[in-house]
Specification:
Layout lengths: L1 H12 L13 H13 L6 E2 L2 E2 L6 H13 L4 H27 L2 H12 L2 H6 L6 H20 L2 H22 L5 H13 L9 H25 L1 H10 L11 H9 L7 H11 L1 H4 L4 H16 L12 H9 L6 H26 L4 H9 L7 E5 L3 H11 L7 E2 L2 H8 L5 E6 H10 L5 E8 L2 E7 L2
Parallel strand pairs: 3-4, 3-5
Antiparallel strand pairs: 1-2, 5-7, 6-7
Helix pairs in contact: 1-4, 2-3, 2-19, 3-4, 4-5, 4-7, 4-16, 5-16, 7-8, 7-9, 8-10, 9-15, 10-11, 15-16, 18-19
Length: about 450
């Protein structure tokens, strides 16, 4: 077991620090954590100085706490929550598989399968919420399962942990941390004709623990910015925009669970042959988990590949419990998959780590910022996030969106410079008679930016 724990941790940690964040397009969450550290506001997340409600704060806290101790947010620190979430998730699958199937080998195989799937491996290397949410869904269902098998006294403890982790899931990704696991365990209880457990004393205690986990932050947030503004922000927030055909996940799961998706027909045949034996066994929980979660995703009108992540652990567990497991074929597929995934990661590092657009831009900007205040005009929000992240100012760079804002700010001080796309500069130059001085031009990704002043 010790070898498995250390080996899986090493596999996940290798080259975790290798890439800059914006090359994956995930600098946004790291920037929210950076502003949390610099501002000292740990209740209301901000991005580019504006209230950020796309996600609850748990991931930002997990990035910000070690960053505060270290002194700054780094790509490695930003990825550590995902790394530890993936590592713990693999270990929980090992324990779960060993418990249900009664064999250490089954646990090792379940954990190894999950670790080496395409989506799980690469989500573990991103500074995003998905792998953290996956862990809390695994933990909430795992502790419910322990409570379901335990004596009445221990059931209170295990169910309490189950609902606590649901609460942490809500603090990670909102309702997605609550409803999927709650529906899964409800369907399982209904299948076993034990639906009354949903209103039992231990579940009522669990609901209370869930509320106590989530409500303190919600109440503090509303107290800080006001109920009316909170409602307005929620109404205006449109983070869920990606739509896809209803068959989307039936196609995407073959890539996300690769290479083990090649064995899904064998798993389906195994389950079919077992018939009622599986349905009335302990492992039926994994089958209910996968079916219910997959149906929820399919019926949900916004569809994204990474949402499949919590559907992979039950597949890995069921494969770990299949009969006629052979060591050599499993190790060959496992080692080949890990080698390919790390090879791809090394290729990415070699290709684009040496050219980090945000880092290069900030390096070129710094000589002009010694005694001047920088303002952004007409820039994409993602560009400003990169500048803020690598420049690391105490307060975010002000963003001007209208020519009148730019003109007003120009008259405030003699020590102000403005970064803008060259197209925006040409429009201003053609409309205004005020002399504008171009301090420097910069190449940023596929566009040209100019740094200008009127003095």
């Amino acid at each position: 077991m010790g070898f498995f724990i250390m080996g899986s941790g090493l596999i996940l940690f290798l080259n975790l620090w290798g890439r800059s964040l914006e090359n994956n397009g995930y600098i946004g969450y790291a920037e929210v954590a950076r502003e949390m550290v610099r501002s000292g506001d740990w209740v209301v997340p901000h991005a580019n100085g504006e209230v950020f409600i796309d996600k609850p704060p748990l991931l930002f806290w997990l990035i910000a706490i070690p960053s505060y101790l270290y002194g700054s947010v780094t790509p490695l620190i930003a990825r550590l929550p995902s790394f530890f979430s993936a590592w713990i998730g693999v270990f929980i699958l090992f324990l779960w598989g060993k418990r249900v199937f009664g064999k250490t080998w089954s646990g090792l195989m379940a954990g190894g399968i999950l670790l080496s799937t395409y989506q799980y491996f690469f989500q573990a290397r991103l500074a995003k919420t998905d792998i953290l949410l996956c862990l809390f869904i695994i933990l909430s269902l795992y502790f419910f399962y322990l409570g379901y098998e335990a004596s009445e006294k221990r059931r209170y403890l295990f169910n309490g942990f189950a609902f606590f982790f649901m609460g942490l899931g809500v603090l990670t990704k909102g309702p997605l941390g609550l409803f999927p696991p709650l529906i899964i365990l409800a369907v399982f209880l209904i299948k076993n004709r034990e639906w009354k457990m949903l209103v039992s004393k231990e579940f009522i205690l669990g609901y209370l623990i869930l509320a106590l986990t989530v409500l303190p932050w919600v109440l503090l947030f509303v107290h800080r910015i006001g109920l009316d503004q909170t409602i307005t922000l929620v109404k205006e927030n449109q983070i869920l925009t990606r739509r896809a055909p209803i068959y989307f996940y039936f196609i995407r799961i073959w890539l996300q669970f690769f290479p083990w998706s090649l064995f899904l027909p064998f798993l389906a045949l195994y389950l079919w042959r077992q018939g009622g034996k599986i349905w009335y066994s302990k492992e039926s929980f994994f089958l209910v988990w996968f079916i219910v979660y997959f149906v929820i995703l399919t019926l949900f009108k916004f569809r994204v590949s990474r949402y499949l992540l919590p559907a992979l652990p039950p597949l890995a567990l069921m494969m770990g419990g299949m009969e006629r497991k052979k060591l050599v074929p499993f190790l060959i597929v496992f080692l080949l998959a890990i080698s390919v995934w790390h090879g791809r990661e090394c290729y990415w590092i070699k290709r684009d780590c040496s050219y980090s657009p945000g880092m290069v831009l900030v390096t070129e900007l710094k000589p002009f910022l010694k005694e001047s205040s920088l303002f952004a005009y007409g820039l994409e929000g993602s560009t400003v996030k990169e500048i803020n992240f690598y420049l690391d100012p105490i307060t975010p760079i002000p963003i001007l969106r209208h020519p009148d804002e730019l003109l007003k700010q120009w008259g405030e001080s003699e020590k102000e410079i403005f970064l803008m796309p060259v197209e925006a500069f040409e429009k201003i130059q053609s409309r205004w008679s005020t002399p504008i001085i171009v301090c420097q031009e910069f190449r940023y990704k596929k566009e040209k930016l100019v740094l200008v002043s009127i003095h």
